[in-house]
Write a structure and sequence with these properties.
Radius of gyration of chain A: 24 Å
Structural class of chain B: mainly alpha
Number of domains of chain A: 2
Number of strands of chain B: 5
Number of strands of chain A: 7
Structural class of chain A: mainly alpha
Order of helices and strands of chain B: HHHHHHHHHHHHHHHHEHEHHEHHEE
Oligomer: heterodimer
Strand content of chain A: under 5%
Number of helices of chain B: 21
Shape of chain A: globular
Distance between the termini of chain A: 74 Å
Radius of gyration of chain B: 25 Å
Amino acid sequence: MQIKRSQRILILIFLVVLFARVYFAFQTPYLDNSGNLVKRYTEHIIETGKPMFFDPLSYNGREVLYSPLWNYILAIFSLILGSAAFKLIPIIFSSFLIPVIYLLSKRIVDNDELALFISLMSGFIPVMFIDTLISASIYSLVVPVLFYLIYLFIDLDEKKIPIFVAFSFFLSLLHPVSILFSLGLLFYYILSSSENLKIGDLKEEAMVFNIVSTFFIQFLIYKKAFLEYGMNVIWHNVPSQILGDYFNFDLLGVMYKIGALTLIFGLVGIIWGIIRKKDKLLLLSGFSLATLILLWLRLLEPTIGMLFLSAALVVSSTFTLNIFLSYLGKTKLPYYRLSFIVIVLVLIVLSLAVPSFVYASKHVKEDVPSPYEVLVLEWVKENSLPDTTIVAPLGKGHIISGLAGKRTVLDDNFLLAPETSERYGDIEKLYGTNSEVEALEIIAKYNIDYIFIPIESELKYGKIKWIEDENCFKGIFFGTPKVYQVIC
Amino acid sequence: MRIVSKEYFSEHPRYIKLFAKLGVGILALAFLLLPEILRENSLPVGDEPYYHLSIAGKLTGIGLGWNFLLNYFHIDALLLIIGILSMIFIFLNLKMLKLEERLVAAAFFIVSPAFVYLFNVGERFGAAFLFSLISCYFLLNNKYILALVSSSIIFLFDPRIGLFLLFLYALYFFYIKKMRRIFYSLITLFILLILIIGNFDDGITSDLGARIGNSMFSLLFVVICFLFFWSKKKFLYLYGAAGFLFLLSLNVDFGIFYFSLFLSILMSICFFELLRTKWESKLVRDFILLIIICGLLFSGLSYTNRISKSKPNDSIFNALSKLPKDSVVFSDIGYGGWIQYSGKKAVWHSMMNEKELEPLQNDFSVILESKNYDEAINILEKYQIDYILIDDELKEKWQESGLVYILRYNSEDFRFLFEEGDVEVWRFFR
């Protein structure tokens, strides 16, 4: 079998992106906060063969609700690759977005070179690049699968239906964000209807199937959460104090994390697609619109929303770049055409690759526990009783439970967690108060044995004064982080 | 062997129908018995049945017909019989209406959370529902006197259901007499009335936590079918009627049962219409219909499981049995029926009307929400409360505020008496 030139280039792009990600990911041996949670749940599957539905460490022991499919996938690969699987597998999966984007772009413009360039762009979308490095993120698989479904749907025929059905089920089982795809289809239907475009019976049937199956599977998995919170489940039981910040949507951040040129070219492509009634772009427009509306309504975390939006914008920019290139061919600049194109393309790559590398380098340094932090937590693991509770700020919860193997008071896995707002308020008060009485009340309330004070807390709240009472608190570590044992 | 059976059945469609009827019957029995089988104790579910049981035999209070019946029959047996009879009359009514999809409609209703609630929670609604079906059957058979007699029996169980049925009969009368202006005026008036006095706070979807509700999938299914069939006149009428009952179910508790029944009929019609429609992909069609069936079953089973795990448990009655007779016990409003049933006096219960309840709610909100000691003591004294009963669920519900706080930090007026499972009993010294 002979490999085509375009396929060889595609493989090369895949490998370049893969190695770039591997380079950054393996600069640290540790995972970030959420990565530690994934690792712990996966290790539980490896040990017992069953998913963990009662987490004895989180929130001093609580029920957890999630789809364990991702953890099973990681568990299988961990048996072969060991703990390297938590970094390698997400990186490989996320790199599969490159061929998917290539296929999608080719379908939109039928320009091989441009499709290859767009697939290269997709490999360096900053937000995607960072998210898949040290988080063992489920989105590394969700994003390629979702865009593969978009690819299948664009030219859906009888032959592709079984694959579409299978991948729809797979995506729904993987993550509740599959609802975003269903909403995207719904918006596509609305846009097409408003433009008087017939989308075809088969596509309509596939749409209904996707919506019904997605809702069914989500109800099946998250039944308990729906019962507990009703429609408020969309807020994921996030503490009221941080609900506003949690879904904060910062436009400048978006430009930097998606890439300014991608954003401009992508948005132009979407608008152009709607104006010119391009069916293939309407689907992406519908999907982007659904994402933007959910982001605007603060129903979707910005980082997650941006993951999908950036990939959709990259594909949409294919259309803009194609128009741009054909326009250049018609101008009186034939001699400068090549150099002009090269400049534009280099600019696009730079607007993506540079922020990707800068963010990635920062991410692997700042968002993982420092060697000293690891040393401290390992000491606690070895030298404290098994049912010890350690208090730490919100962003450190999974690191504590993952590395020290001890109970925590609070972490960011809010769904079904008990009294999240109350606990968040209490922990904020604990680190911020000057009153030892108030602090001791909170310590007694949650049976806290150790107080973990990371540098972030000291920077935010200043020095904690009540901790200096030697009758009540015994200092164990005094660097960054500080650790005190409660002795009274 | 398989081929022979297939041929045999294709030549004998009446056997297929018989088997289908048998299947629906077994399904009905399963959903009537399942909550009882899954339940860890033999106590009736919920707090309302205990209100009726505590005044069983007396022709007083709410649902006096039901109270009377409970004196002579065991609540579980009564519910089972009413459930079976209701299913028979649903089937007969649908047969009278010449609905071809009646078996599927009956099956959809059986797996609905409304059916599970109606015939597993010993409230008065089940009996009233049965008599409304009987009355409807007589009406469709043109036996008006019998219809009127069975309608009047409904008033013994719940006058509101009786009135609602009379309203439906009036609508039916004006419709067949072609008095359309009065017919539509009545519907408009009814809708306006519901919109004005409607209580839209209660959920109507059991999957989203509503106490009595519909399956999320039935609602999703009819919405999707509406997108497919809205242009057909027949469906517009059916959806109009469904909308009418939907509004009713938002306002009154019993409305959900009639809405669920109508929804099941609508779903069965839509289901067969979808089967008859030409599909581009049969795989997709089969999957959609399969998911809908699984979804409906899932909702029904999940609700059955929820019902079977609901309170009361043995600990509550064990704790109450240790208290002296006629003593006044304070607990949550939902515990009032249990307190009364065990021979003690409850200060409030969920069967009280709004007028009775309002001053009590105002007073007890002070106890439950404020930490003002004097105010709380005054209110407890006002209602001559002797004991306070609290369990884990109430501790979580009331949290650290109010009564829980006072109990913990005041040893002068309150004394912890004993613990029975997760139930704590405190003595209040007046």
